[in-house]
Every structure is written in C-alpha cells, then in structure tokens.
C-alpha cells in the first residue's frame, strides 16, 4: 500500500508545480509587399500597376465593379487577395478620376482628378497624383478574416450556454458591461460586421457623386487680329444734308475670353455658369475726304454672364446676357489742313445684349461655333444729341461663326467672321436742321486668333 501512495503523492506534487499550458501562437502572414487591387480601363490599369509596383503587389481586376461600389463589392475583391486597398479609375472625356478605397470596409481614402487628352495614351501619372495614391494605399487595411471566430468558438462558451441559457438581448448587455477577455474576438467580429454593414450605405453616398471636372473646356482665351469695314447710310434725306460714310478696311487687335469656374471641379450645373468678354480696338485708322485726313477711333466691348447646356461631351447650346458698347468717332477737323468734318455724327451704341449660339466642341481636331445676338439701344452717342437727332432710337442685330483647329494640346487656331447692323429710327423734330427719318450703320469683319483652351 505504501508504494501506490507514494506514486500518488508524486503525481499530485508535479501537477501542483506545473504551469498552465500556453496556446500556440497565431500564424504570421507571409512576408512580401502588401496587396492592392486595381480596377480601371486596360491602359490606365497597366499604368497604375507599374506606378504602384515599387511598393505594392498590384493586381488588375478584369471584371469591372460599379463606379460607386458598396463595401460588399470592395470586400469581394480584397478578401480573396487579402488586399489593403482598391484603386478605382474612371474617365470622363478629357478627365480622369482616381479613387483609393480602404480594403477593410470600402471607405474612400483619397480622390484625385486630373486632365489628360483622351486621344493620347498617358505615359506617366502626374507626380502629385501618383504620390497621393501611393500614400493613400499605404494607409489601407486588409479585410478581417470573416467567420473565422465563429468556426472555432471557445469551448467554455457552449458549456455556459448549455447550463444556463439566456436570451440574446441579455447576452449583448452582459458583453457591454463586463466583456470577458475570451469574448473579445467575438465582440470585435460583431462590431466589424455591424460597421461594415453601415458602411455599405455610407460608401455609396460618399462616392455616388464624385467631384469630377466637366468634360467641356473651362477656359477659352483668344488673342488675334481683326479686320472690319463700316457702311453708314441715311434714308429719306433728299437734300443730302448728311454725309454717307464708307470704310473698306480697318485693322484691330481683338481679345475674347470665356470662363466657367465651376468646370474645374465639377460636371454639374455650376460647371455651365460663367462669364464672357469680347473686345477689339482699331489701330492706325483715318478717314479721308479729298486731301483732308481726319483722326478716327473705333472700338467694341461686350461683357456678359454665360450659360451652356451640354449634350454629351462634344456639343452644347450656349447663351449670354450682358452689356454691349460699340463706338466710332471722327475728329471734328482734319489733322493736316484743318478742314471741318462733314455732317457725320460720332456714334456710341450702348445697351443690353443677349445672344444664343451652338458649339461643336471637337470633331477630331476641328471645332465649330456660331451665335446670333440682339442689342436694345439706350444710347447712340453724338447721333442722339440736339446737334443731330435727340429723339433717335434703335436696335442692333449681330451674327458670327468660327472654325478652330487644334495645333497642339490646349492651343487652337481660330478663324471667324462677324456681322453687326444697327437699325435707327431718328424721329426728327419739325423744322429741324436734319430731316432723315431713319438710318442704318453696318459693320462686317473677320478675324484670326490663337486660342488657349483648357
């Protein structure tokens, strides 16, 4: 009996001094570059893959996901590849939008928008865009191993459930107030699953309307040369007290600009609201009568609010509303011999102007535009004074069209013509010096300009 008792005492002493057995350490992920999934058109996908390849193991998704993916769609790509991020690239005309999505829940980490010629493949991403994408991918997280904690639950949990079952609601309260260490993984799984569920609604709202620049140009600035002529005629002047005026050709420097500020950042309604300016100033012009030479000045300015309604990325209807000023003045005496000026009043046609036109933005390298306008005259300059016809009234109509050719990126050569005619009702007073009831003042011109378009 002593021998078994001694053996029993030895076993008890050994078990008392032995420590608890340690659980085996979790397996570490395989070494190598973090995985990233690229979803983009083929050429852009290859460019993004080469850009990210220095720091990440970038793979291309051949089955494109939606432009505004939910968290579930993102995880469908990142879970099999254990990827930390998804890089989503989409094009709209001459613009690209690149979005980096977190691999764990699909939340957006970065969005970069830049312009690139649609008909020329990109050789490299802009440096600031590439840097931002790489940094955003580095902050991504791999998706959690879904359903792993549920497949191997702790052995103590089912025992507690068998001996003392409780309703599901009470179990949730218990885990919130006193969470045991062994249940941390399960609570974490519940939290991550709930956060991922809520993120499905959040990601769709945050990426459903990305700030993508308009495919139509945001800015057009043209500087060039304009040549024009003038014809002023009077009706119902039998005594020919008023002199007609004709100018065959006069040179001018012309500047025009149209700017849509919102088009730099959005393709919505704000992208189609802008401002427009057009002006030209005649240079080296003089008027002659016999041997007398009179100093002559002519200019034209228009400033307007602009709106366009695009139909696709190549065609739009455009409208402007603003003010117009066109002046033509002749010195009262000749510069060379002091001869008085004939009875030709100087004019300054001023008033509100509206116009509507169409624009074919690009047909290959060629663009076409046309516009017609109407001006209601509120002032006619010297023509509407007591010296001539103080009750003069009138209106103007104008039309123009142009053709542009793209020389290199953003630089165009544009040729155009323009026509403007003012219809004047003079309303002479009884017994006035001049009795002509009406007149017309017509301008016809053409211009060539270099345009910067972006």
How does this structure look, described?
- The chain has two domains: 31-212, no CATH class; 219-453, Lipocalin, CATH 2.40.128.
- The protein is built from eight helices and 16 strands.
- The chain has helices at 2-17, 42-52, 71-81, 127-138, 148-151, 156-163, 168-177, 184-207; strands spanning 35-39, 57-60, 83-92, 95-102, 108-115, 219-235, 245-259, 273-282, 286-289, 292-311, 315-330, 347-363, 366-376, 393-408, 411-425, 438-453.
- A ten-stranded antiparallel beta barrel has the order 6-7-8-10-11-12-13-14-15-16. It has a five-stranded mixed beta sheet with strand order 2-1-3-4-5, sandwiched between helices.
- Strand 1 (35-39), helix 2 and strand 2 form a beta-alpha-beta unit.
- Residues 15-31, 147-151, 158-163 and 168-210 have low confidence and may be disordered.
Q: What integer value in Å does the Rg equal? A: 39 Å
- Which H/E pattern describes the elements? HEHEHEEEHHHHHEEEEEEEEEEE
Number of helices: 8
Count of individual domains: 2
Structural class: alpha+beta
Strand order of the largest sheet: 6-7-8-10-11-12-13-14-15-16
First and last CA, distance: 103 Å
Name the helicity range. Answer: 10-25%
Indicate the CATH architecture of the largest domain.
Answer: Beta Barrel
Strand content: 35-45%
CATH class of the largest domain: Mainly Beta
User: Quick one: CATH superfamily of the largest domain?
Assistant: OMPT-like
């Amino acid at each position: 009996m002593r021998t078994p008792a001694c053996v029993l005492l030895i076993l008890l002493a050994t078990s008392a001094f032995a420590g608890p057995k340690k659980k085996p350490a979790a397996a570490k992920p395989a070494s190598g570059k973090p995985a990233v999934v690229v979803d983009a058109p083929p050429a852009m996908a290859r460019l993004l893959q080469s850009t990210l390849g220095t720091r990440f193991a970038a793979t291309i998704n051949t089955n494109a996901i939606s432009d505004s993916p939910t968290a579930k769609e993102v995880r469908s790509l990142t879970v099999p590849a254990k990827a930390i991020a998804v890089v989503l690239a989409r094009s709209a005309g001459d613009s690209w939008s690149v979005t980096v999505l977190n691999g764990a829940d699909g939340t957006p980490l970065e969005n970069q928008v830049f312009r690139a010629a649609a008909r020329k493949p990109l050789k490299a991403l802009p440096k600031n865009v590439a840097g931002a994408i790489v940094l955003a991918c580095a902050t991504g997280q791999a998706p959690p191993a879904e359903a792993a904690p549920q497949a191997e639950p702790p052995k103590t949990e089912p025992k507690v459930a068998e001996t003392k079952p409780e309703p599901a609601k009470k179990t949730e309260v218990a885990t919130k107030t006193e969470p045991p260490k062994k249940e941390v993984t399960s609570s974490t799984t519940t939290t991550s699953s709930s956060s991922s569920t809520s993120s499905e609604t959040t990601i769709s709202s945050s990426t459903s309307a990305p700030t993508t620049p308009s495919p139509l140009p945001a800015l057009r600035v043209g500087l060039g040369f304009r040549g024009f002529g003038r014809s002023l005629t009077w009706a119902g002047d039998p005594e020919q007290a008023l002199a007609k005026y004709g100018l065959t050709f006069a040179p001018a420097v012309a500047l025009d600009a149209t700017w849509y500020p919102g088009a730099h950042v959005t393709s919505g309604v704000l992208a189609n609201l802008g401002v427009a300016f057009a002006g030209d100033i005649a240079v080296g012009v003089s008027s002659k009568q016999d041997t007398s030479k009179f100093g002559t000045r002519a200019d034209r300015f228009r400033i307007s609010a602009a709106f366009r309604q695009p139909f696709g990325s190549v065609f739009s209807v455009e409208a402007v509303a603003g003010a117009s000023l066109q002046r033509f003045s002749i010195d009262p005496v000749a510069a060379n011999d002091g001869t008085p000026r004939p009875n030709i009043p100087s004019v300054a046609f001023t008033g509100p102007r509206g116009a509507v036109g169409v624009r074919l933005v690009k047909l290959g390298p060629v663009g076409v535009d046309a516009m017609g306008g109407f001006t209601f005259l509120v002032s006619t300059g010297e023509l509407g004074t007591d010296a001539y016809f103080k009750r003069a009234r009138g209106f103007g109509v104008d039309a123009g069209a142009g053709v542009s050719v793209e020389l290199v990126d953003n630089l165009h050569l544009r040729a155009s013509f323009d026509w403007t005619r003012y219809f004047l009702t003079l309303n002479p007073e009884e017994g006035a010096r001049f009795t002509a009831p009406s007149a017309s003042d017509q301008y016809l011109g053409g211009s060539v300009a270099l345009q910067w378009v972006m």
